[in-house]
């Protein structure tokens, strides 16, 4: 278990996703395609309504802000033992000064 906090005040969703991907690359000691990893994270947080309806993401109040939490599972084949694989379960919680749930559903790469 590890807890890391990335504070983003004025950056876009795309920049924030890149920082999360950097962090996960450090945690996962295997080679992962960073571009693909960032795309998975970006997809997770730019289609929140669908993800919430599917049970993968959930909304909550966080002080005077709101948050969405999303749990991701990554699996990578062990190149030395093809029948073996590495997994990483991660929970990503985005907290923002977004006041209503519906506004979260409109996030795009360039949202600040």
UniProtKB/TrEMBL annotation:
It comes from the Eukaryota. Transmembrane segments: none annotated. It holds the Pfam family Bac_thur_toxin. Keywords: Sporulation. One of its GO terms (biological process) is sporulation resulting in formation of a cellular spore. One of its GO terms (cellular component) is extracellular region. This is Uncharacterized protein. It comes from Spongospora subterranea. The lineage of its organism: Eukaryota, Sar, Rhizaria, Endomyxa, Phytomyxea.
């Amino acid at each position: 278990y590890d807890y890391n906090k990335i504070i983003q005040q004025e950056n876009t969703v795309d920049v924030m996703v890149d920082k999360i991907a950097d962090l996960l690359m450090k945690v996962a000691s295997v080679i992962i395609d960073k571009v693909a990893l960032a795309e998975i994270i970006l997809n997770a947080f730019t289609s929140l309504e669908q993800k919430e309806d599917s049970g993968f993401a959930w909304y909550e109040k966080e002080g005077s802000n709101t948050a969405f939490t999303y749990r991701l599972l990554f699996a990578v084949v062990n190149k030395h033992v093809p029948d073996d694989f590495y997994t990483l379960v991660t929970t990503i919680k985005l907290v923002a000064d977004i006041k209503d749930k519906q506004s979260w559903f409109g996030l795009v790469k360039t949202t600040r």
